[in-house]
Amino acid sequence: MKTMTCKQLGGACDKAFHANSFEEIANQSKQHGMAMFQAKDEAHLQAMSDMQALMQKPETMAEWLERKKQEFEALPEN
To answer: In the structure, what pLDDT confidence band is assigned to residue 13 with cuts at 50, 70 and 90?
Structure first.
């Protein structure tokens, strides 16, 4: 199991996510993001806006995702 924070995954806080795969941790981050969106958390809304801008360029988004996946893979097991 590995740990990444919301900030490490492009978010706005230090909430820790724990998972055995990058896909699993990305899903946890997505669920957290949806909760923060519903709560209208300003810092997370800004992070989401930044992410939406990144998504406008599919190649750039794919590179970002690959870097995050590599970062996850390089982490030590908890």
So the answer is: very high
Quick one: tokens of 75?
């982490």
- The answer to whether the beta carbons of residues 8 and 67 sit under 8 Å apart is no
Q: CA angle at residue 65 from 31 to 60, to 5 degrees?
A: 120
How many whole angstroms separate alpha carbon 5 and alpha carbon 46?
Answer: 17
Compute the C-alpha angle 68/71/75, nearest 5°: 140
Contact 21, 3 (CB under 8 A): no
Mean pLDDT, to the nearest integer, of 33-48?
96
pLDDT of residue 77: 95
- Residue ranges of domains in the chain: 2-74
